[in-house]
Design brief:
Radius of gyration: 26 Å
Bound molecules: dioxothiomolybdenum(VI) ion
Helix content: 25-40%
CATH class of one domain: Alpha Beta
Structural class: alpha+beta
Largest sheet: 7 strands, mixed
Distance between the termini: 58 Å
Strand content: 25-35%
Oligomer: single chain
Number of strands: 30
Length: 730
């Protein structure tokens, strides 16, 4: 099915159905009892050897000599792979780079050797014996220094620049103006499960093949990229990711450990397993680039925006073009006749920058939603009122209608529930030693649909098997797929077997960009719809008004048990969803509003979040419990971005100096007081057959800005350099 038409009434529109119910995760018990094997724990293979990555200790230069003799002689060592003996590889695809390519070092942490031994301890000990002698060059690692020479990057999905009307003229003429620069630091995904792979290379009848048990969000994309780099036919590359301990974008593509494990297994003809250390997560795996963002707003005296300018600079590793799309959502957020957005990129001697949860929007709205707060302050207008005055009637750049847009409703609902009317003047509220303030920010995030396929099989025992190469990164995919299939077929979730996480199954979108549930769920919806039709035809039932409930299909005065219709072989159907005309005809986003109350210690500048509320819209909510958990997680991401998260780079050496979770702080329980998230009712019939929208990422967008705006309201200090640490308050 191509998404070319709005969706009419569907079986999911039942008010009391299974879809939407806050049921517990169907894989929850397996996970909490340790019976859900993650990549590193899979025991399906012959005894594996263990790999350990050796990293470059400089950020720029050349390896003059790599001494691997001691490592090779160390106990248990089976292989020391370097640029001198690595098998030939294909070209980089997406952001999957061939490994150990030559003596040139481009970033600190670049793998320079891969040591494989009988045990993990032996591999790690031998890795420490690899000695590199470098010709060191001075790295370029400062985005600030490189900003003047940053270039226009090649477009990613959308062009890097946009322009409408006469921005310069309108901005110059505006009676009220704001021209500010915000910065956001390097952020690290910090997902709980590190990158890990067990690779098994085999020579089969149809050639060389490799199976990777790996932690990966988008299996089919990873399959294609690895196939190119490993010079294999994609059908001979199998990725299996049944359980994934978080990704946040860092597992959108295979990381170096997967490529290295595959290459080593090829050489050794034995399974090779490897996990990155937490430190390697910082420099071998990817991160979100730091950004510099200039925001210019021009408004009339009533606060109507006449000019919006949002420019963003970010950094990519040498030879890569990934840029942080900070200004993309600004193109659709508020009305103004004259507008520019612009993205510029610098190639720096830093590890690979890539997508991290809400790439672009997350940091874009950290900046933009504070700039809106600054403008409200200048105009002496309530920040919600300012946003309402600039609410566009259609997409301000694409000039097409919004499929749904309840931003104003989110702000109003949130304001009422949070007690926004009690917000005091700047610096006016005190609670003992704490200066107290409230802030809000809007949230918006693109809603994409990705091609996906699914197969379903009604089994003779009345269960239904769902198969697709989808993944569950901890978000609840297993559960919502069971709910969609259960509702469509009139079966309880206990009768649905969800089998995902394997490229042997039909191709699916995977988990990323907030497209996972909608895309995979829609493919499943179509597969179930096809299965319903097949069963009705087979039974000679009138499809008109037929219902599937309680394990039976009822049409007119006939009622058949699904177990009877399944026969002795079962009945199978397939389904497919593809984006279509709705994508271009409508501007599709999820929206929300964040409200935060902070206390700032009047003496030390310490900032504590006191309470927080997020109100979101995401089309149909497929499971109120898992959706709310995702929203809370996004908001907590925002708390981290606002108050503590920053990977600090020593620009002289190109090294992240705080490369573990002891020094790269993410919010802990004590940092997260009473927070709540809720969804307003919504159905988006232009989005997908489920009428759902993405909600994994909208909840981080703007979340940190609400805290920053609250800090301003508490103290009168406007901090434009994230994170907001106490030294910047004083
Ligand atoms: Mo998300 S950064 O697409 O996992």
């Amino acid at each position: 099915m191509d998404m070319n038409q709005p969706i009419g009434t569907t079986p999911l529109d039942r008010a009391d159905g299974l879809v939407g119910r806050p049921i517990d995760r169907i894989d929850g018990r397996l996970k909490v009892t340790g019976r859900a094997p993650y990549a590193y724990e899979v025991r399906d293979l012959a005894k594996p050897a263990y790999g350990f990555i050796v990293e470059a200790s400089i950020a720029k230069g050349t390896i003059r000599r790599l001494d691997t003799d001691a490592a090779r002689r160390a106990p248990g060592v089976l292989l020391v792979m370097t640029h001198e003996n690595v098998p030939e590889q294909g070209e980089k695809k997406e952001q999957v780079f061939p490994q150990l390519q030559g003596a040139e070092i481009r970033f600190r942490g670049q793998p320079i050797a891969f040591v494989v031994a009988e045990s993990f301890e032996q591999a790690r000990a031998a890795a420490a014996l690899v000695k590199a002698d470098y010709a060191v060059q001075t790295p370029q690692a400062s985005l600030r220094d490189a900003k003047p020479t940053a270039f226009e990057p090649k477009a990613m999905q959308t062009p890097p620049d946009s322009k409408l009307g006469d921005f310069d003229g309108a901005f110059a003429a505006a009676p009220v103006k704001l021209d500010v620069e915000y910065t956001t630091p390097v952020q690290i995904h910090a997902q709980m499960e590190p990158h890990a792979t067990i690779a098994s290379w085999e020579s089969g009848q149809d050639g060389e093949r490799v199976t990777l048990y790996t932690a990966n969000q988008m299996l089919n994309r990873g399959q294609a990229s690895l196939a190119q780099v490993l010079k294999l036919d994609p059908k001979n590359v199998r990725l299996i990711s049944h359980y994934i301990g978080g990704g946040f974008g860092s597992k959108l593509q295979p990381q170096p450990e997967a490529t290295l494990a595959a290459l080593a297994s090829r050489s050794l003809r034995r399974p090779v397993k490897v996990a990155m250390t937490r430190q390697q997560e910082f420099h071998v795996a990817t991160h979100r680039s730091d950004t510099i963002q200039r925001i210019r707003l021009g408004a009339d005296a009533n606060g109507r925006l006449t000019a919006i300018g949002h420019e963003s600079w970010s950094a990519a590793t040498p030879g890569d073009g990934f840029y942080e799309t900070s200004a993309n959502v600004t193109r659709a957020l508020y009305a103004a006749e004259n507008r520019i957005t612009r993205h510029r990129l610098a190639n720096l001697n830093k590890p690979v920058a890539s997508a991290m949860r809400a790439p672009g929007e997350a940091v874009g709205q950290l900046a933009f939603e504070c700039a809106m707060d600054e403008l409200a302050e200048q105009l002496k207008v309530d920040p919600i009122e300012l946003r309402i005055r600039n609410e566009p009637e259609q997409d301000p750049e694409k000039k097409v209608p919004f499929s749904t847009r309840q931003l104003v409703a989110c702000m109003r609902e949130g304001a009422q529930r949070f007690g926004w009317d009690k917000r005091g003047a700047v610096g006016a509220t005190r609670d003992g030693r704490w200066l107290v303030g409230m802030g809000m920010a809007a949230a918006a995030r693109l809603n994409p649909l990705m091609p996906s396929q699914a197969s379903v099989r009604l089994n003779p025992d009345g269960t239904l098997t769902v198969r697709m190469a989808m993944t569950d990164i901890g978000t609840g995919t297993y559960t919502i797929l069971a709910q969609v299939a259960g509702e469509m077929m009139g079966l309880p979730v206990e009768r649905i077997r969800v089998e995902i996480g394997d490229t042997a199954y039909p191709k699916a979108a995977g988990s990323g960009g907030s497209f996972g549930a909608g895309s995979a769920g829609s493919a499943l919806y179509v597969a179930c719809d096809n299965l319903r039709q097949a069963l009705l035809t087979q039974a000679g039932l009138n499809p008109e008004g037929a219902t599937f409930a309680e394990g039976r299909v009822v049409s007119g005065n006939r009622s058949e048990a699904l177990t009877d219709l399944a026969g002795k072989d079962g009945v199978e159907a397939k389904g497919e969803i593809k984006p279509g005309a709705m994508k271009e005809k409508y501007s599709q986003h999820s929206y929300g509003a964040h409200f935060a109350e902070v206390g700032v210690d009047a003496d030390t500048g310490e900032i504590r979040l006191r309470r927080m509320l997020g109100v979101f819209t995401g089309g149909r909510i497929l499971n109120q419990k898992t959706a709310r958990s995702q929203a809370l997680g996004g908001m907590i991401f925002g708390i981290g971005a606002a108050l503590m998260e920053a990977a600090e780079i020593d620009t002289r050496t190109g090294q992240f100096v705080n490369h573990d979770l002891a020094e790269y702080h993410v919010p802990a329980h004590a940092d997260v007081p009473a927070i709540d998230a809720m969804f307003l009712p919504e159905l988006d019939d232009k989005s997908n057959p489920l009428k759902s929208k993405g909600l994994g990422e909208v909840s981080i967008c703007g979340a940190g800005a609400a805290l920053a705006n609250a800090v301003y309201n508490a103290t009168g200090v406007r901090i434009r350099e994230y994170p907001l640490t106490l030294d910047k308050v004083l």
